[in-house]
Design brief:
2 helices; alpha+beta; 6-stranded antiparallel sheet; 10 strands; 4-stranded antiparallel sheet; about 15% helix; elongated
């Protein structure tokens, strides 16, 4: 049963037989409790399953505007979510970063790389293909590889790719810096929507 932090402090004070806080003030108990929780979690960590999605949106620019990507055919861009994602111009083989979302069909990008008719792909932040996920926003991971582990926590990283299947599909993965690469032999299907 989960307990609130304040309740734990009260119970510890009762165990110490110091409910009047003569020997142990709340501040000291809080510091000690936080240290104990960290130490216990090293021996028996609570594993949190995080769901990330591969970014697989593609399209074709429908207009030429300086430092913009306009795609009125798809209207697939989402404010805030798409900022810092990578745009790859497949036609010219150039790259840019999304700096702002102007509308569902227009992105502001860091470089002037798009002209009307150019095909593009969108990748996750700091990624260079659509089989990668950015893990830099995971703050409280335990161990190497941003906390990505194998089934028994001692083997190489494994991820489940294509969730919701009757038979679970596990894939090998490699973590390099903040980037997790999923080992698949096929391209992810174009989602035509933002992957949150």
């Amino acid at each position: 049963m989960a307990k609130a932090h304040a309740l734990l402090i009260t119970e510890v004070a009762q165990e110490l037989q110091d409910t009047s806080k003569v020997l142990w003030v709340n501040g000291e108990l809080v510091i000690q409790l936080e240290d104990v929780l960290r130490e216990v979690s090293e021996y028996d960590p609570y594993i949190v399953r995080e769901v990330y999605e591969l970014e697989s949106r593609t399209g074709k620019a429908t207009a030429t505007t300086s430092a913009k990507l306009e795609d009125t055919d798809e209207t697939q861009f989402v404010s805030v979510v798409d900022i810092n994602k990578v745009i790859f111009n497949k036609t010219k083989r150039t790259w840019a970063i999304v700096t702002a979302v102007d509308s569902t069909s227009v992105l502001s990008i860091s470089k002037d790389i798009m002209t009307s008719g150019d095909e593009y792909r969108m990748y996750n932040r700091d990624c260079w293909n659509n089989k990668q996920i950015y893990l830099g926003d995971v703050e409280d991971y335990i161990g190497d590889d941003h906390g990505v582990t194998g089934p028994d926590r001692d083997t190489s990283p494994v991820v489940e790719y294509r969730l919701g299947r009757l038979a679970r599909e596990f894939r090998n993965a490699k973590v390099s810096g903040h980037i997790l690469s999923v080992d698949t032999n096929f391209e992810p299907v174009d989602s035509k929507q933002a992957n949150l």
